[in-house]
Amino acid sequence: MAGAGEGHARPGGSGGARPDDHVVVLFGATGDLAQRKLLPGLFHLAASGLLPERYRIVGAAPAAVALSDADFSDHARATFAAHVITKPTDPAWAGFEASLSFAAADPEDTSALLATLAAAERAVGGTPRRLFHLAVPPPAFPSVVAMLGAAGLAEGARVIVEKPFGTDLASARALNAAIHEVFDESQVFRIDHFLGKESVDNILALRFANGLFEPIWNREHVAYVQVDVPETLGLEGRAAFYEGTGAFRDMVATHLLQVLGFVAMEPPVTLTAKSLRDETAKVFEAMAPVELHDVVRGQYVGYLDEPGVAPGSTTETFVALRVMVDNWRWHGVPFFLRTGKCLAESRQVVTIGFRQPTLRMFDLGTRQSWSDAGNELVIDFQDPGSISARFLAKEPGPAMRLGTAAMTFAYDSSFATANDLEGYERLILDAMLGDQSLFTRADGIERIWEVAAPLLESPPPVEPYARGSWGPAAIRRIPAPHGWHLPERP
Ligand code: BG6
């Protein structure tokens, strides 16, 4: 098989190689994700000179919604105008536009796809690599994969599969089995765009490139960990997807737990895909099954009136929970996860709370204790990202009084961020390079569904919360006796 697979070194380590010549086939090319992230991302890669020297992009969709080549170009142009900083006026646009074509693709009739793909490959010349990106609704994954197999297109190709990968353990296993009938694991790139975020990748540098943090990154010193991703966004017209998915499957079983994997893993031997994914898989292996009394599900008031939402729907638009990683490093340290739609702020934050030393020698002033001030390391991983260490310092003056202080590293004021890639862009590039490091592996995903089973089988009732709030009042009990780091105190 041509997939470079798990032994491949990460581009960061190999100095940013340029991918081989490619034909990228984007299934679901007229859909929401292609419009918001994938087409703009491919264009940004082209404008940054990071795509292969010669490439073609084939949009694909079922015949019922297929476009002509010209309409696909117009669609892409409109998409870029709305969704990217790099606009279609960029000098790279003409070359990019010339690379686009469109094909109808249905399991019963792949003739148009085969002809368009062959034409794209002739235009590139030689034997370009094939990359199939499945940006289709999850129920369609197996049929598109089977279609690729039946059409003889899988040999030597790579395939990017979107999230959520299954809806529970049984469906994830069935999907893995369906994919493995056609593709070898080394060809499969299960994408989770949070792992492509610069600041999430930086968790590895922060932990393992410094002597400062790793010695205290354990149960001896850490009291709790939080991964908090509130969103002000609502449904954004995605009711059809969201109704069958909900906040847990959309965000926790995917993004939040993958971030947790990076925060909690043991030092990998190398940064190859195998080492990294072995370590995150061990974290998920050590996770205890979710306890129902450690979960709060919420639904914002007004959700039931959204177009496309079923009457009386019990889909959660919010979830907060506590999980435990029961290994030597983390035994007894709670991990608090929270995410939801229509909340007060859009933030993406990991907080490491450190144990408090005795403070009896200090004057607490009017405070009963400092338990609400906390020593915390706060990793804000929303682009461009920052890291702050919060600690107690002496307030100026004759008395030994404490005040809260912070030291902050901000990406945008510390490095040139002009060439930054968005999560999706970085990962599409990695897939072209055959580097699976930041893609999830079958065993890791299956274990996450296994751990989530109690919640999926008997979900607690949804509790209402007001739009613009931080979720149902009941969530305060999840991190008790600690509090949520967000909203940040002034
Ligand atoms: C997607 C979810 O995967 O991630 C969305 O389906 C969510 O519901 C989005 O809004 C958040 O990602 P980001 O990083 O683009 O804000």
Task: Provide key terms for this protein.
single chain; 490 residues; alpha/beta; globular; disordered N terminus; binds 6-O-phosphono-beta-D-glucopyranose
Descriptive account of the structure:
The protein has 490 residues and is α/β, with parallel strands linked by helices. The chain is 32% helix and 19% strand. The chain has 14 helices and 15 strands. The chain has helices at 11-14, 32-47, 69-83, 93-98, 111-124, 141-150, 169-182, 198-208, 239-243, 246-264, 273-286, 411-414, 423-433, 442-457; strands at 22-27, 55-61, 100-104, 129-134, 158-161, 188-190, 222-230, 295-300, 318-324, 334-340, 349-354, 375-380, 386-394, 402-410, 462-465. It has a nine-stranded mixed beta sheet. Helix 6 (141-150) links the parallel strand 4 and strand 5. Helix 7 (169-182) packs antiparallel against helix 14 (442-457). The N and C termini lie far apart (55 Å). Mean pLDDT is 92; it is low at 1-5.
